[in-house]
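Entry under discussion copied across for reference:
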Amino acid sequence: MTMVIRRMALGITGGEGPTRTYFGGPVEGAVCGPKFGWSQQQKISMLVFSRFVEVGRVVLITYGPDAGKLAVVVDIIDHSRVIVDGPTTGVVRQAISFKRATLTDLTINIPRTIGTPALKAQIEKQDLLGRWSKTAWAQKIAKREARAKLTDLDRFKLMVARKQRRAIVGKALGKIRKSK
């Protein structure tokens, strides 16, 4: 079914054999069933790739001294490198390889080779850091960092709280089982 949708989106007809999804992409000649639990909208949205390298695309630097910081693509050098700048996150303007950065879904509207002060103004105007902090990706990173910063006493308190929660849930579940 996924291949049929892809072929329809591309305007290709014929050869609509059964498909199965491997590594996030459909492969022709296998069987795809409802056990995957994907809706038609999810199947179609999987086919539409939207994280293109473009001026204004926000990247998360994953390696080097600026790892974990956000930056904005201000110019494209070639197929594997871009110039990024992050005046609000402490990333100086530099050329960076795609191997050291990950594209995010966020973009801001800026002209090519914008200056650092103007970029900072656009980032604040378009509330880039606020939009980033609302994403599941940013929340997952924040949760991981918070857990890594726990002291031994904090980990103990967390363990005790989890045990108390487990006991309360167990008692409530026992009452429900007895009533049946």
